[in-house]
Design a protein that fits this description.
By secondary structure, the chain is α+β, with helices and mostly antiparallel strands. Helix content is 23%, strand content 22%. It has 9 helices and 19 strands. The strands form 5 sheets. Strands 1, 2, 8, 9, 10, 11 and 19 form a 7-stranded mixed β-sheet that branches. The radius of gyration is 22 Å and the shape is globular. The structure holds flavin-adenine dinucleotide (FAD). The site of flavin-adenine dinucleotide has 38 residues, from helix 1, strand 9, helix 7 and helix 9.
């Protein structure tokens, strides 16, 4: 077997944003030879399909375990003591055990625990094989000023088409509609119509009455079936981008099963390796702009369980959109299931969860760092996360707690004995800023095409590229920015 290979474009990472780069490049340059690397395994016969497409039970559990990188075993389920701690508003250890995910950052040396829970999924489809599929549109203040309104509207529309977003998937759920009406009367006054209280737009469809969440197989579509110029290579880690001057020339990789190392020569590289591992790969490659890994932010959260007046729970999800400084929250409300309520579930009342994502301050010192002397399970520098909340963040959290209570009392009441609780930092799974785009190479990693400053042919993708303070679930925006980046890369490759 040769230890050299070639592709026009190597995409590192097979989650939604890597898939969006592949799809957008294919639409623009039909003959481009694209090779997509994925450190984790295939989970089933349909590459990138969501785990909910795998029948519940042994097979789905095996797929979740296979996604957990170094932690290839089932997690212990939450126990009664942990649950009681959570009900009382505390942070219980089970919140760090999430099937299908593993924590990528090293334990905090001072406390022996991870202050930040930096979750990741390592599998074909990335977190897109595990996500909930909520695809609300960002508010104007949430997307970068680098894009005009018309351009961003066009990118968002293309992203919605790629993800096959259904804006009204939950229309007709009468319990949900009642909640929307009630909360709309309380919260929609003064909001622009498109940001009033409404059903959650979903990258999902109903198949035989079951929710089918869209994974990356929906984005890649025909590329998985009849496209000889697209190759997907699971179990293969990008270790280093080789570069000379302002050009990358190859990606050095490691194939786990065969334990083979080789290089792939290429005309361009797209690093779509999530907001923690993307910076890791650039760091390992000696590509270290000052802003790399900095400005890390996430949507810290408050959740509360609510007892409804009726006896049944809604099935779908609704959304109270983020507005900026006046309402720095994105609120999801939906019917509670076994995962929300593993013990002590009352049987005579409908239940809902209220989950508030908060926009936080963006600080350069909140960051991912790397230890070159230690490697992670794939042989890349071990990453750590330093993050703290500011006084303003603490005020936002307090306001979010008050908001969950207010919502609970409008649609019912907090479930008796339950208090709003905040899971560990990192629990939103929405990590932003570590690869931020900008107009100045002194405080950003990439330009508006997501091209890394100083390099002609290395692009980054994922939530890490988002430079702004946001509250809205980020995937739709990240996919939009990936489409913009792919357009820029296609211009470069064609020119
Ligand atoms: C349970 C859950 C619910 C969620 N719900 C929502 C939601 O409702 N709405 C929303 O907007 N977002 C949601 N998210 C977040 C969403 O899934 C992410 O925003 C999205 O998947 C990010 O896409 P990505 O392509 O940037 O990265 P990822 O999906 O994380 O994929 C990155 C991939 O890169 C691979 N990789 C990393 N390093 C390397 C390397 N060196 N070599 C090769 N491969 C590498 C990883 O193994 C991984 O498979 C949710 C996530 C989870 C887990």
């Amino acid at each position: 077997v040769s230890d050299r290979e070639r592709a026009d474009v190597v995409i590192v990472g097979s989650g939604p944003t890597g898939a969006a780069y592949a799809r957008a490049l294919r639409n623009l340059l039909p003959y481009l030879d694209i090779l997509m690397l994925e450190a984790g395994p295939l989970l089933g016969p349909r590459p990138g399909a969501h785990v909910s497409a795998i029948p519940e039970g042994t097979f789905r559990q095996a797929a979740e375990i296979a996604s957990q990188g170094p932690l290839a075993k089932a997690y212990d389920p939450i126990d009664h003591d942990e649950w009681r701690g959570r009900v009382a508003g505390g942070v219980d250890a089970s919140l760090r055990r999430r099937p299908g995910l593993f924590i990528a950052n090293a334990a905090d040396a001072a406390t022996g625990t991870e202050a930040f829970a930096g979750f990741a999924a390592a599998n074909v489809g990335g977190m897109g094989a595990h996500w909930s599929g909520g695809c609300p549109r960002p508010a104007r203040s949430e997307y970068p000023d680098l894009f005009g309104d018309a351009e961003m509207a066009d990118l968002l529309a293309e992203a919605e088409t790629m993800l096959s977003v259904q804006p009204e998937l939950f229309a007709g759920d009468s319990r949900l509609e009642t909640m929307i009406d009630t909360l709309g009367a309380a919260f929609s006054a003064g909001r622009p119509p498109q940001r009033s209280v409404r059903t959650m737009p979903m990258a999902a469809s109903m198949v035989d009455g079951q929710l089918h969440t869209h994974g990356t197989e929906i984005i890649l579509g025909s590329m998985l079936v009849d496209d000889p110029s697209f190759r997907l290579r699971p179990g293969t880690t990008g270790l280093r981008i080789r570069h000379e001057g302002d050009r990358a020339s190859a990606v050095e990789v490691h194939e786990r099963l065969s334990d083979r190392r080789y290089s792939i020569d290429c005309a361009a590289v797209v690093v779509a390796a999530d907001a923690l591992h993307g910076p890791q790969l650039l760091h390992a490659s000696g590509l270290r702009p000052w802003a790399l890994g900095r400005h890390l932010n996430e949507h810290f959260q408050v959740s509360l369980l609510v007892e409804l007046d009726g006896t049944a729970s809604p099935k779908g999800m609704m959304w109270m959109p983020y507005l900026g400084a006046d309402f720095p929250f994105s609120v999801t409300i939906g019917g509670a299931n076994q995962g929300h309520m593993p013990f002590d579930r009352p049987t005579d009342r409908g239940l809902a969860f209220v989950s508030v994502f908060c926009a936080g301050d963006i600080l350069p010192e909140n960051r991912v760092t790397f230890d070159d002397a230690k490697t992670d399970w794939r042989g890349l520098p071990q990453l750590s996360v330093q993050m703290h909340l500011t006084d303003k963040d603490q005020q936002t959290l307090a306001a979010a707690r008050a908001l969950t209570r207010e919502i609970a009392h409008i649609i019912g009441r907090p479930l008796p004995g339950h208090t709003p609780f905040s899971p560990p930092l990192g629990s939103s799974l929405h990590y932003q800023g570590s690869l931020r785009m900008g107009s100045d190479d002194r405080d950003s990693v990439s330009n508006r095409d997501s091209r890394v400053w100083g390099l002609r042919n290395v692009h980054v993708a994922g939530n890490g590229v988002i430079p702004t303070a946001t509250g809205t679930n980020p995937t739709l925006m990240s996919v939009s920015l990936a489409i913009a980046g792919a357009r820029g890369l296609a211009r470069h490759l064609a020119g």
